[in-house]
Design a protein that fits this description.
The chain is of the alpha/beta class. The protein has 3 domains: 1-96, no CATH class; 155-236 and 364-410, 2-Layer Sandwich (Nucleotidyltransferase, domain 5), CATH 3.30.420; 237-359. 50% of the residues lie in helices and 18% in strands. It has helices spanning 3-10, 104-114, 119-126, 130-147, 190-200, 203-207, 218-227, 237-257, 261-267, 271-275, 283-295, 297-309, 318-330, 338-349, 351-359, 365-381, 387-410, and strands at 15-23, 28-35, 42-43, 50-51, 56-63, 71-83, 87-90, 155-162, 169-175, 180-186, 211-214, 232-235. Strands 1, 2, 5, 6 and 7 form a 5-stranded mixed beta sheet that branches. Strand 11 (211-214), helix 7 (218-227) and strand 12 (232-235) form a beta-alpha-beta unit. The protein is elongated.
Amino acid sequence: MTDNDFTKILQWPGYRVYRHEINESGKRLRLWVRRKRGNRKLVCSGCGRKFEDYHDFSEREVRDLPWSSLLTTVVIEVHRVKCPDCGVKVERVPLLPSKAPFSERFEDAVGQACESASARQVAWRFGLAESTVRAIDLRYLERWSARRNKPLVKQLGVDEIYLGKRQKFITVVSNLETAEPLWFGQDRKQATLDRYFEEETTPEERRGLVAACVDMWEPFTRSILSWAPACRIVFDKFHVMQHANKAVDEVRRAEFFRKGEEKRQVVKGKRWLLLTRWVNLDATRRQMLNELFVLNRRVMKAYLLKESLERLWTYTYEGAAARYLNQWIDQLKWQRLKPMEELARMLLRHREGLLNYCRVKVRFGVVEAINGNIKSIMRRGRGYRNLRYLLLKAQHMAASRTEFIVLQNAA
């Protein structure tokens, strides 16, 4: 093969191969490339100004995609230009995205491999260190993020994720319409969310916020209302039902604690039945649940109250939803179910956020789906110390899945 054949196979725009060397025993291929005659414009890496003359040049060896079983490296001539504004600067080479000894398409290949495998597996596959793979993947994701268009945020989702004893909580801000995370912040204080609004949003973007789906954590609510007063706070149905399940479980514990050892053994191991919706139980499990109801009517009443609370989010008219909520609370009279009464008082305190769902519809499942994606990424990567890296991974996962669904629907 001639150098011209190697140039055609390499496909580096604007460069030609003028020398090659093949080491068959070591399975290595080295290619020496320089600019073609028509590619003489040099771009300053500092300001972007173009030059025809260069100050000096040197050779730089970078790793490229393998050719068959040969590990390929490219030795490229890199020039320095004498810029009147920046001084002596290295030229900008689009094929070399950073100072690392890798070409852009090699880094893209490593980044694409990291989408479906852990950094350790990718490192073994490419013969690199695990830390090197993570650095390459981060640069790949940064370039992907810089190229994409970011839509205007109208519906915001705010939640927190527990990362363990060392990192504690992180606050996750997400776009409910595109189902992707927007920002991560350490801790779950009001100052944490204030930092997002101050650093990541403009006054126009804050005025454009229509709704924010949050749990009943007061610091988040105060922060949103202080930065975007016109934004409607909608309390997440998932967290409300979590409180309802907790109230049912407290009733179960209080009631069967007094029944003695024999009755406690009957209900032991069946807590999950009371936390599962009736529509999700088959005939056998419904029979098991009915047997528990025969043992204690208060547990049955608490379960039925929890099940009927789900109907609150089926209303589209605000007045009807308010009337149903009042009727649900009225059912607690003379029932002597203290955990359910505490739940009712909490619902009354957050009544406006519950009724806001009738005024503006939000997608409740998006926040929990994003949290699930983040946790799966962390399990595969065995933890992330760099929150920026974790955010880009989660954004790329959400965007790639969205593109897949769009293509699938179009087909």
